[in-house]
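Q&A FORM
Asked by: J.P.
Topic: structure of DNA-binding LytR/AlgR family response regulator

PROVIDED:
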Amino acid sequence: MSNRKLKCIILDDEMPSLKFLKILLGQLEGIEIVKVFNDPLMLVKEYRELEFDFCILDVEMPQLTGFDIAEILRDYPIIFATAYKQYASEAFDINAVDYITKPISLQRLKQAVEKVKSRFSKKGADLTYAQFNTDKGKALIHFDKILFIRNSDVDSRDKILFFEDETDVTVKNISFGGLLTVLPDSDFVRINKREIISLRIVKFFNSEEIVTTLKDQLDKPMVLGLRETYRKSFMELLTGG
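REPLIED BY: S.T.
REPLY: Here is the structure written out as C-alpha cells.
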C-alpha cells in the first residue's frame, strides 16, 4: 500500500482502558486515531461520517456488544481488545484480524496492527480485480476500468460504478468502506459522503472541489465536491504523504 497512515477508531466503554489504548496506539508508527468512543450507540450514530480503515473494539458493553458492532462494521478489519478470553473463538469465526486480552502490552498491540497493515498491503499489491454482486448478477470488475463511484439514489446501500467505456453497473449492498478495502489505495480515494474517485479523472482541484476529465449531461467538465472530512486523505494521496 502507499505510505499513508492507517486510520483507526476505538470503542471501549471503560474510560481508563480507552485512554491506555490511545496512549499505546500513539506509540505505533503509521497509525492515526480518528476518534475514540466509550458508548457503542454513539459509534453507530457517527461512524458513517468518519473516514477510517479499521477499528478496535471491546466485547462486553452495555446495550450493544463488540460483536453487534462488528456486524455493523463488517466491511472493516476488526481487532477485539477485551478482558474476556472466552470469546476468542467467536471472534475468529467472524474473521476478526486479531483478539487481544487485557492487560494489553505495546508489543501485542503492535502485532495485531501489523496484521491489519498486512491485509492492506496484500490488497494493494496483489489484486487488480474483484468479484461483486451487481444488479446484473455476479461480475468480475477490473479496478483500472473504474473512473468513479457514486451512492445509488434508489438505495443508499448500493453503489454505482462508472467505467471508462461510459457504461456503469450497480454493486449491491456494499459500503464505501467495503469498496475501499479492496480498491488499490494508491489510486482511489473518497472525496465526500457520496463519491469515491480514481485519481485518473482529476484535472484541476482546490480545497473545495475537483474538476474532472469527465463530461456532464451538458458536455461540460464534471465538477465534484471535496469535503473537509476527506480533504486530508485526498491531498496525502496526491503528494504521496
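FOLLOW-UP: The mean pLDDT is 87.
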